[in-house]
Amino acid sequence: MPILAVWLGPLPVPRSPKKVRVVLVSPPPRPCPTPAVERLRPRGPVTRVFRTNRRVKEHVGACVIQGWTVVRGWDGARKGERPCLVWKGLEGLVAVPPGNISDLAAFILPGLYIGNFKDARDVEQLSKNKVTHILSVHDSARPMLEGVKYLCIPAADSPSQNLTRHFKESIKFIHECRLQGEGCLVHCLAGVSRSVTLVIAYIMTVTDFGWEDALHTVRAGRSCANPNLGFQRQLQEFEKHEVHQYRQWLKEEYGENTLQDAEEAKSILATPGILKYWPFLRRL
């Protein structure tokens, strides 16, 4: 997800807080009573920062202004002399629309869930959702529970990680599970980027959606869904060059889709309020 930010500068409270989305500032070298600094006191952990420049030394906390995550950090090159926006120091920053990362796996489509590492070990929740298949995609992915069928994909949450090469086996794994009337959980560590990317590719294949509409569908169930910039580019390339062949392959392999995913996904997108956080992102 691109950085969406507004430069606050060393000023006190901005004139129009509604325009504030994601801001990266540095804590001052000594206590500073200015309203801007007081307002940016951390209230929770940093959501996620990736691919940092060497100049960016630390990120110390986050709070929320107008429903958007605001991150505090410091830029070593400026030596913490003033609050500053480190624009070129980050390749990407996850900004989560109102709503926290859930403690429960998120329902995406019938028989398809996205969750985090904790969800993948929650036997009670897995049983409740009739999950018999787990797709694990993270650096140390491995089977953890007996009686569950696994597809383990070792992959880092890095823009340079190639997830496209795992799309076909992931789609096959998820689809075969759902055709059997069972549940599949797709998870990474946080359930934000890697797992979401694989599920978006699956939704694109079983519907006629492009990657953006597929992302809308996922966010309807999991608002924190945010593939990193590299994964977004891979999904864009998948939409341009490969998804049509994948749809044809799926049809030849399994016949007509009896799961009515296209209708289900379109009804999700028609739900009022689902898309209200997306229009400004499309303008970036």
Automatic annotation (TrEMBL):
Q: What does this protein do?
A: Dual specificity phosphatase; can dephosphorylate both phosphotyrosine and phosphoserine or phosphothreonine residues. Activates the JNK signaling pathway. Inhibits T-cell receptor signaling and T-cell mediated immune responses, acting, at least in part, by inducing degradation of E3 ubiquitin ligase UBR2. Dephosphorylates and thereby induces 'Lys-48'-linked ubiquitination of UBR2, leading to proteasomal degradation of UBR2. Dephosphorylates and thereby inactivates tyrosine kinase LCK. Inhibits UBR2-mediated 'Lys-63'-linked ubiquitination of LCK.
| Keywords annotated in UniProt | Cytoplasm, Hydrolase, Protein phosphatase
Write down what this protein is called. JNK pathway associated phosphatase
Sequence similarity: Belongs to the protein-tyrosine phosphatase family. Non-receptor class dual specificity subfamily.
Keyword Cell inner membrane carried by entry: no
Cellular localisation: Cytoplasm
| Native organism | Fukomys damarensis (Damaraland mole rat)
EC assignment = 3.1.3.16, 3.1.3.48
Record field: catalytic activity: O-phospho-L-threonyl-[protein] + H2O = L-threonyl-[protein] + phosphate; O-phospho-L-seryl-[protein] + H2O = L-seryl-[protein] + phosphate; O-phospho-L-tyrosyl-[protein] + H2O = L-tyrosyl-[protein] + phosphate
Hydrolase recorded as keyword: yes
